[in-house]
Amino acid sequence: MTVQSITLTRSLGRPSFLSGLRALWAVMKREWMIFVRYPSWVISLFIWPIIFPLSYVLTAQALSGRDGSGMAQFQAATGVLDITGYIAIGTTIWMWQNVVLWNVGFSLRNEQLRGTLESNWLSPTWRFAYLLGSSAPQLLSMLMFLTVSAIEFVLFLGVRFDGSLWLTLLTILFAVPSIYGLGFAFASLVITLKEANAFVFLVRGIVMIFCGITFPISILPDWMRPIAAWLPQTYIIHAIRSASLSTDGLSAISGDLKALALFGIFWLTIGYLVFNWMERRARRTGAIGQY
Amino acid sequence: MESNLLLSQPTMASHLRALFAIARKDWKQYWRYPLNAVSTVFQPVIWLAPVYFMGKAFSVNGQALGFAQYSGTTDFMSFIILGAVLGNFINAVFWGMGYALKNDMDAGVMESNWLTPIPRLLILVGRSLTNLFVTMVTSLGMLVVCGLIFGFHPTGDVWSAVLAVIPMLIGLYGFGFAFAGLVLIVREANTMVDMSAFLVQIFSGTDFPVTVLPKWLLPIALILPLTYGIDAARGLLLKTDTLLSIRVEVTLLIVFMFIMLWLGSWIFYRIERRVRMLGTLGQH
């Protein structure tokens, strides 16, 4: 019997648009299975929306004093009448960005830590599908989170949503590209820079300090306000507060929506470019399996 | 040839060597990522910033008069900074002890560590040593940074406050044993650790006086020993109003310390035995 040797000049994989979609679907299915495999997400879904804002709401209550004199001072200084709704929306947007950074931002890093990133990278698939596929179930779970948050704010914190549901949904739609684009860029950077926790703390910290999650931007010192103007979360928080709590209508948020559209295009492009850069760099340096 | 003898000869010295090896391993791992270390100092500053700006809007000439009605001090930032420092230790126990086991599970070294002839509790104590030391260093750093940025003005006796906090910390680490046991059985620790640490901090009043809590939530705060530890430390260092007299609060902390050490290790061993019987130690 003779053994015939075959020299392969081409990859056996046949990447096409459809195979890319199948890979994306497979990653989404895997991520969803991992997500529902640990039922603690149900607890998070119901508990976090209430306890995180509660900590700031109670601090505000303590600052108000027993006779409410502090609150009168706050209202006179900021013009904010419903501080509970104000804090609840600001902190919820912060939580959204925070969860995206941890989940989407860590999706590749977690693969790296588990030792599966290198082997996945060797498969002849569209590599961006790994990142995109991780984001889709995350987006679905976040929409559930936002819905539960709104219901709980009404039931437990007594927040009155006098604004428009459709305008709020429109604002959320405009917010998605910025929030997830940042997540994509972040995910790509941390598998190269490794110290993922520190970078999450930095990015979410910037949002926490500059975007006015518990106070109006006007309170910030002069040098801090221009920084706030360059962060999409500032516009998201302002627009959702306006759309859901007030009856000012579309005109009050149109400027925010325009800014968010531009930020969305910017961050999605940056996210995709950073991913491609990281992918090329990782192949060149062979650092993708290191941690 | 059959042997009923265990090859290892555990002694006090070998236990101490193991303890040192665990602490050294954690120390090396911690400093391997220096940015994470820096961020632990600055992260509390970030958490405090929204409260600082919000508090400014509630104050007149830098004095939070409303806040004084609940706490006995208008210096709300010193009140909150001290709470944040003590909150660091709560986080350290939850993340350092609870989540350390989850990290071992993920890295696949949990089972092999468990097969070594040293007491399991020693592994946890070893994990806590570096954690406790690092938390002390970073908390001091944080106190300096926060003092410079927001202002920290202790008016009372520093050493009395430190002494009052010691039984609280020991009791807290006793509680950490029980919590580590829970992680062994629940396995998906992230949510549990994150949420438990946050809830304990809310109810023990790290960010506000617990008397602000609604009446139906206040009993939860009052059954937590940490509430009295944080309250006593503030009373001694910032001369704030306390829930009970400081003497009573410190006595309560000492009693809780012994109870938590005993109860924590008892719960840990019960769960650990159960996990070994189920054979789920290596699963995650």
Walkthrough of the structure:
The complex is a heterodimer of chains A (291) and B (284). Chain A is mainly alpha-helical and 291 residues long. Chain A has one domain. In chain A, helix 2 crosses helix 6. The longest helix of chain A has 36 residues. Chain B is mostly helical and 284 residues long. Chain B has one domain. In chain B, 77% of the residues lie in helices and 0% in strands. Chain B is built from eleven helices and no strands. In chain B, helix 4 packs antiparallel against helix 8, helix 7 packs antiparallel against helix 10 and helix 10 runs antiparallel to helix 11. Chain B starts with 11 loop residues before the first helix and ends in a 6-residue tail after the last helix. The mean pLDDT of chain B is 86. The interface between A and B is large, with 49 and 47 residues.
- Give the total of beta strands of chain A: 0
Q: Quote the distance from N terminus to C terminus of chain A.
A: 47 Å
Our Rg estimate of chain A from Cα atoms comes to 22 Å
In round numbers, the mean pLDDT of chain B is 86
The portion of residues assigned to helices of chain A is: over 70%
Mean pLDDT of chain A: 86
Tell me the count of domains of chain A.
1
- Give the structural class of chain B: mainly alpha
Largest interface: A-B, 49 and 47 residues
Straight-line distance between termini of chain B: 37 Å
N to C succession of SSEs of chain A: HHHHHHHHHHH
CA-based shape of chain B? elongated
SSE layout:
The complex is a heterodimer of chains A (291) and B (284).
Chain A: H1 17-37, H2 40-64, H3 69-78, H4 83-114, H5 117-122, H6 128-157, H7 165-193, H8 196-210, H9 225-229, H10 232-245, H11 250-285
Chain B: H1 12-32, H2 34-58, H3 65-71, H4 76-107, H5 110-114, H6 120-149, H7 158-186, H8 189-204, H9 218-223, H10 225-238, H11 246-278
Helix pairs in contact in B: 1-6, 2-4, 2-6, 4-6, 4-7, 4-8, 4-10, 7-10, 7-11, 10-11
